[in-house]
User: What shape does this take?
Amino acid sequence: MRRQEFIDKLKSLLEIDDADKTSLIEEYESYFDEAMADGATEEEVIAMLETPKEIAMTANEEFGTKSNSKVFREFIDEQVGAVRKGYEKVIESGKTQEVSNKINSVISNTLETVKESLKQVRKSIKESDINEKINEAVGKVQESLGKVKDINIINSFDSFVMKYDNSRIESFDIQEESLEVKVHDSNSVKLNIEVTGHENDGIIIKSLPTTMKYDVSFEGGILKINVIESNIRYSESKRMLILLPECIKNLKFETDCPIVLKCLNLSEISVSEGNSPLVIKDINYSSNVSNTEDDVKEISLGDITVKCGSGPVVIKNIKANKLDISTENGPNTIKTLDAEVVKLQLGNGPVTIKDITGGAHLYKIGSGPKTIKEISLDSLELQSDGGILSMKDVMVTKLLGDIKGTMKTLKNVSADSFEINK
Assistant: This one.
């Protein structure tokens, strides 16, 4: 479906008064304009929204032809603004538009070069033959360079493995179960950190490039690393690998740098970070996270607590006894979760909750657009501060809470006991 088809379909299905219909259509048109200006395609924008039928069904049910235009307009401003804010946050953190512009420039310049080169072919060749060869060559270049645009930069970050051949090495002995790590980089281009476990004794630190200057100390169970401010522009990215021994069970990490923590056997983990990307995976842990873009994957067992700021948050492939997640206004995606007790307190950014099983869950969600689907629980308490809510394929024994004032679409939602204020 293309943009105009989406808008036309929505117009035809809306059964609300003209003023409200105009307001709703204008906001969705504006959202398309701004998201596409940031580099999204029409198809990508549509994929982030409910279908025209679902939007119209919700609007018609909640407001009908007797709605208050002012209230309705404020409501639409709020929910579409939340989507826009979340999308812009992702665009900003991933530098998506900058990368897209560079790729388009490379493709354009390459195609022009190919055309000019082929036009220098011997004049004895017929013009029709030249055009045929040009079209054939251009087609091949488009096919090859087109693959560059399909690279998923964000997902690639998770599978990227940093190399540490011929690196600078520091080592420290440790016998205690608790370790506190503080890493600070005063430079605008931050150090990339990877923290993982190893079978040997002691703490080992590897870093590249070897010309990078930093101070390191270990005293009283606290490891401090300070990257010295410098005007040097290194030919390779600054990176550091911190290897921790199995004796460490409690880890507290404080940094303003991008960080990956993986393959650690911990009973407790606390991470305090700025607005840089954070990845946590393959860890049994209880985590506290602040103000970052978060990606928590493949976690099993234990009690998990995640506290995040306004960065994008992805929580997936989790199995836990208890899960407590608190976020601010960034986009939130929670998928493939099996937990007995869950408490979600999510801000006003877009929210997707999918493929969830367990016992008693409480979801408190702000005014951003919300999608909740493929849920199987003993009980679900749902509280929404407005916005758009889509619930699909939800099966619970008990459904309670308050979603009054929220534009909602409920499909295949079943419960033995309904105690929810709609």
Q: What stands out?
A: The chain has four domains: 3-94, 96-151, 160-266, 286-422. The mean pLDDT is 75.
